[in-house]
């Protein structure tokens, strides 16, 4: 569990992080969203002590991170940033090995970990471990950047716009990667993003910031259905809200008994995809793999329910 208590950061007269408190349970993904300059990156960097707060505390599993030297803390916290931050003259393997080396892991264990992570990120170890970063595509570099951040099995992974440089298609795949890997490893993740869509689909909690202040911290459904302030409402985009709400649930959640013709939906597909399929195929209901159907009426009710709630 990570707990921020009354965190404040001032530069001269400017307060860039203003009395931020929140608690995030282990194994959850939190997205930090907000306008440019709202203090998101500063907040993230306070957590791994790249920046020291003016006031307030960060506790990880009840222990104040101000105790002990920052470099030891950073070995327990993965950090992945936009542009991937890979060392350009080091191979993929050497990049991933950075923190395990600092921790003094035996080389055989490091080698095994490199191959394990490359396989986890669907990069063939034999083909990729000896390449230099410039010999990789943007998406591959991004995966190596996240693999490096996860190498020493950190309890906490901080990500600052990690997918910002990726084109939309690769971005979706990278998000899916992260979701699967996070589920497998149980790592707690705090992710800064400009992309509300990414925040809603990827995270269990969303923190909305404006001018250094935390306006709201809640589940994506709470943020979408009960925005705390007009600013939050504007940020989540009223017009798109029903669609975002649909993106949060899976076909399996809305499945009902029945049989119908048409393209078969995966139970894991989002309701947003189901709606798109219904509209695209011109049908009022579609079959679900493994049995049952999803109806357009139920999809509409689900989307509208969010608006009413
Ligand atoms: N070292 C510094 N000295 C003075 N002001 C700073 C410093 N670092 C950041 N700031 C200011 O603090 C504010 C918050 O910056 P921060 O990078 O945390 O915002 P952000 O929400 O991450 O923005 P963006 O989305 O544009 O990356 C900005 O107004 C920035 O100009």
TrEMBL record:
Keyword flag Transport: yes
Domain of life: Bacteria
Full protein name: Amino acid ABC transporter ATP-binding protein
Record's keyword terms, sorted: ATP-binding, Nucleotide-binding, Transport
GO BP terms, alphabetized: quaternary ammonium group transport
Source species of the chain: Paracoccus contaminans
Similarity-based family: Belongs to the ABC transporter superfamily.
GO molecular function list: ATP binding; ATP hydrolysis activity
Residue intervals of the ABC transporter domain: 2-236
SUPFAM superfamilies, sorted: P-loop containing nucleoside triphosphate hydrolases
Coiled coil: none
A Pfam family the protein falls into: ABC_tran
UniProt cross-references to SMART domains, sorted A to Z: AAA
Keyword ATP-binding found: yes
Signal peptide positions (record): none
